[in-house]
């Protein structure tokens, strides 16, 4: 598979059930934030559906590669991609460690609601207990994207400000809703960035 795009090559090996060859290819290629990251994401997606030694044969070699990455940003994003598939490539070496008290404080400071995170992530009651930073950050990013998309959709439905027709009352209500969603998006994005130390 020399010369093939890494994403295509990894897909090819996965279809053939040759996970070891896909892992070997990822280890050989130069890491980048586009195709290489996407290929690693495909592998961690597969690993997330496996159990036992089959999972370890993919997860552990990928984890070693990720730990050796020189690019901190790429390293962080690969770890977050993997966490979406319940694969933990970070065991305290990559992402900052935080407690439940930290999460509550960060959420309070930016104006985010911890109860939203609790819907998706099991959070401890003890303020000194560690939390799953990757999972909490993913929820923060997902909420930021959700509110941002909702705000943009509403703004697109509003009439052009230069339109001679007067703006109606329901347009003002829509604009207020879009502004609230945009603010919530900003808050959730700030929460995720604070958790990740970026």
What does this structure look like?
This protein has two domains: 6-83, no CATH class; 100-196, no CATH class. It is an all-alpha fold. The longest helix is centred in the C-terminal third of the chain and has 28 residues, at 169-196. The chain is 67% helix and 0% strand. It is globular, with a radius of gyration of 21 Å. Helix 2 (19-28) packs parallel to helix 4 (52-67), helix 3 (35-48) runs antiparallel to helix 4 and helix 6 (100-110) packs antiparallel against helix 9 (169-196). The protein starts with 5 loop residues before the first helix and ends with a helix. The model has no long low-confidence stretch (mean pLDDT 90).
Sheet/helix structural class: mainly alpha
The sequence of SSEs as H and E is: HHHHHHHHH
Query: How much of the sequence is in beta strands?
Result: under 5%
Tally of strands: 0
Oligomer: single chain
Please describe the biggest sheet, giving its number of strands, its sense, and whether it closes into a barrel.
Answer: none
Compact summary:
This protein has 198 residues and is mainly α. The protein is built from 9 helices and no strands. The longest helix has 28 residues.
Question: Which features does this protein show?
Answer:
198 residues; mainly alpha; 2 domains
Topology:
Elements: H1 6-15, H2 19-28, H3 35-48, H4 52-67, H5 72-83, H6 100-110, H7 114-120, H8 133-157, H9 169-196
Helix pairs in contact: 1-2, 1-3, 2-3, 2-4, 3-4, 3-5, 6-9, 8-9
